[in-house]
Amino acid sequence: MTTALIIGGGVAGPVAAMALQKAGIEPRVFEAYDKSAEGIGANLVLAVNGRSALLELGITTALDAGFDIPYNRYFMGSGRRLSKVANGKQLDDGTVSRAVKRGDLYGALRDEALRRDIHVEFGMRFIGAENTADGVVARFENGTEVHGDLLIGADGLHSTVRTIIDPNAPKPRYGRLINTGGYARDISVPGEPGTEFMYLGKRCFFCYIHHPNGEIWWYAAPSWPNEPSREELASITREDWRAHLCELFAKDNTPAVDIIKATPEIWAPWPINDLPTVPRWSNGRMLLIGDSVHAVSPTAGQGASMAIEDSLVLGKCLRDIPDIPEAMATFERIRRPRVEKVVSFGRRAGDLLIVGSQARRRARDLLMPLFFKRIALNEAAALSWVYDHRIPWDEPISPQPAPA
Ligand SMILES: Cc1cc2nc3c(=O)[nH]c(=O)nc-3n(C[C@H](O)[C@H](O)[C@H](O)COP(=O)(O)OP(=O)(O)OC[C@H]3O[C@@H](n4cnc5c(N)ncnc54)[C@H](O)[C@@H]3O)c2cc1C
Question: Are residues 266 and 296 in the same domain?
Fold first, then answer.
């Protein structure tokens, strides 16, 4: 049986493992960290296209810890309403986009992979690999070497596999924004569950959603012109950071300040990055998927969905195309145009959140209402290419020729 070594046990790793297993390949997942991230950290909204891809693999429990978010509402910082749009079209069985903590999603995907008897090893930090005459050998920090027929890099934004495939591979691109957020408790704020409330504030973007348990999940994206170092961000105390955020939202007519004050622990900020074009997706029998090869800015709400879609397409390619490098090349030809378009969509969405000079802000305040009016009028068509993408498992794939 063909054996695939999968580096990374985040989103792409376990889902690819389940797709490969369905395709008749033996997957082995290697994750650098311990299995202990459940329930902690930031959250994400898994869009309907990602959920649909999970359903193709029969993965139904991964989002049990989350809750549905079928709508987005947009406002200016003044409180002026811009529009209400669907967060992707509902699937025939009623499935809609769903919010979940990243740690819970990771934990549930890994548990589902283990339930399917997939080999998952924790505490295995990948450090290097070579193509051999008939396969690959992967090396880990603890001195272990593992042989396989192919290697899949699903090791995220700061991928080590990417630099093994191509030492000159590009590094993540900074989006001139940082990200923070938290979970507020014991506070009542306007709005209904099932909707993301997004505010284009005078000095910063703010978003919140109501958890059915009464918590308010929120995040903010302060503009930060130059990429901050880890040390710079670590030097800001939690209380200074809270005070800074309250100041950023002080002049807005939104619940942001009350929500921030009602948050016991605000996440330390981190930079927003993406990865637009990676020239080499594969080398011999090694291939990249997910954030390791096309990280999407969180402003698109599509990174996890792209990782899941990748996994499904890769499973189909390896199922239907016996030659492994040919299957990898076909995977790239199918996926590259879509993921690069989504990365670019995320970048443009992020650019809208950057608050620059006063002139830029004035222009934004004039243009935004028109922009959102257009989106509301033409909502389904405007974003259907993102949300309506479907990948039926049973539809066969044949090798695709290289573009002329
Ligand atoms: C704050 C934030 C909000 C987001 N919001 C959304 C959203 O709303 N919707 C959405 O769809 N996406 C969102 N995303 C993006 C989404 O989280 C990612 O696109 C998705 O997790 C990518 O999955 P992945 O498996 O490719 O990478 P990751 O989830 O990053 O997983 C990579 C895994 O590889 C492991 N690893 C790394 N290096 C090694 C190594 N050397 N050896 C072994 N293992 C290694 C890591 O520990 C990790 O478990 C958000 C991201 C962030 C940061």
Answer: no
Q: How many CB atoms lie within 10 A of CB 169?
A: 19
Q: If you average pLDDT over residues 92-114, what whole number do you get?
A: 95
* Closest approach atom of ligand 1 to CA 102: 17
Which residues are registered as beta bridge partners of 46? 98
List the domain range (segments joined by +) for residue 246. 173-273
**Ligand 1 atom 17 nearest Cα:** 304
Domain check: are 254 and 314 in the same one?
Answer: no
Mean pLDDT of 101-112: 94
Question: What CATH number is associated with residue 149?
Answer: 3.50.50.60
Ligand 1 centroid to Cα of residue 58, in Å, is 22
**pLDDT of 377 over the 90 cut:** no
Name which of 266, 101, 87 is nearest 183 in CA terms.
266
Please answer whether residues 248 and 222 qualify as being in contact, where contact means their C-beta atoms are separated by less than 8 angstroms. Answer: yes
How close is the Cα of 152 to the center of ligand 1, in Å? 15
Q: At what angle do helices 324-353 and 303-320 cross, to 10 degrees?
A: 170
- Name the region of 39 (left: φ>0; alpha: ψ -120 to 50; beta: rest): left
How far is ligand 1, taken at its centre, from the CA of residue 85, in Å?
27
Work out which ligand 1 atom sits closest to the CA atom of 159: 38
Using CB atoms within 10 Å of the CB of residue 338, give its burial: 0 to 12 exposed, 13 to 18 middle, 19+ buried.
middle
Per-residue model confidence (pLDDT) at position 36? 60
| Per-residue pLDDT tens digits for 123-169 | 999 999 999 999 999 999 999 999 999 999 999 999 999 999 999 99
Domain assignment of residue 42, yes or no: yes
Q: How confident is the model at residue 53 (pLDDT cuts 50, 70, 90)?
A: very high
Tell me if 85 is assigned to some domain: no
Q: What are the pLDDT digits (tens) for 192-243?
A: 899 999 999 999 999 999 999 999 999 999 999 999 998 999 899 999 999 9
State the average pLDDT for the chain: 94
Span from the CA of 117 to the centroid of ligand 1 (angstroms)? 23
| Ligand 1, CB cutoff 6 Å, lining residues | 7-13, 30-33, 42, 44-46, 102, 125-126, 154-156, 160, 179, 290-292, 296, 298, 301-305, 307
Residue pair 150/287 in contact (Cβ under 8 Å)? The answer is yes
The amino acid that residue 344 corresponds to is S
